[in-house]
Specification:
Order of helices and strands: HHHHEEEEHEHH
Oligomer: single chain
Largest sheet: 3 strands, mixed
Structural class: alpha+beta
Radius of gyration: 23 Å
Mean pLDDT: 76
Number of helices: 7
Strand content: 5-15%
């Protein structure tokens, strides 16, 4: 059990005249039993499988309390919602998130941390916290993404270049589809 984080959470609740109920303790224990990025509904399923009486609303409210107290992190997963992870006091990491499969890769990069500090200093800003998420396509999904994009582009181009009679369109696909964003790694500095 993560005694330090439990103490932080308990004190946070006390400052708000809230109690560490059995439901909150059960959610804490489940989240801190392993390190992963998990959805709220998955936590609900796990706790109910352990015969814990807890509502969906209690899960979401308690997760918000845990995020606010600093012991749990929340990752935005696009349209899919959020995933939550335990945080250890004093530890820090950032995330790479695959938009295709949802894979989350944790990393720490000292150069990024130093740059953030320099930017804050330059603007006279005192950093209290930050979250850094980089979204893209992971190594495993890249081949599928390329083949899917190629097939989609070919189909789109074929349908744009001909009207209902099959005749070629003068405007072509470039006029109908604005250019797609270029991945950061392929952008050239001008």
């Amino acid at each position: 059990m993560e005694k330090r984080e439990l103490t932080i959470f308990r004190k946070y609740l006390e400052r708000r005249s809230l109690k560490l109920t059995a439901e909150r303790q059960a959610l804490f224990d489940e989240l801190f039993s392993r390190h992963e990025h998990v959805e709220a509904d998955e936590l609900l399923v796990r706790l109910r499988a352990k015969h814990k009486k807890i509502s969906r609303a209690t899960i979401y409210r308690t997760l918000e309390l845990m995020v606010d107290s600093g012991i749990v992190g929340r990752l935005r997963m696009g349209e899919a919602g959020y995933r939550y992870e335990r945080l250890r006091a004093g530890d820090h990491h950032d995330h790479l998130i695959c938009d295709h499969c949802g894979k989350v890769i944790e990393f720490f990069e000292a150069k990024i941390e130093e740059l953030q500090d320099e930017v804050a200093l330059r603007h006279g800003f005192v950093l209290l916290s930050h979250t850094h998420q980089m979204r893209g396509i992971c190594r495993s999904c890249r081949p599928r993404a390329k083949s899917g994009a190629s097939a989609s582009a070919a189909a789109s181009s074929a349908s744009d270049d001909s009207d209902a009679s099959g005749a070629s369109s003068a405007s072509g696909s470039a006029a109908k589809h604005p250019s797609r964003p270029v991945p950061i790694a392929s952008r050239s500095r001008e």
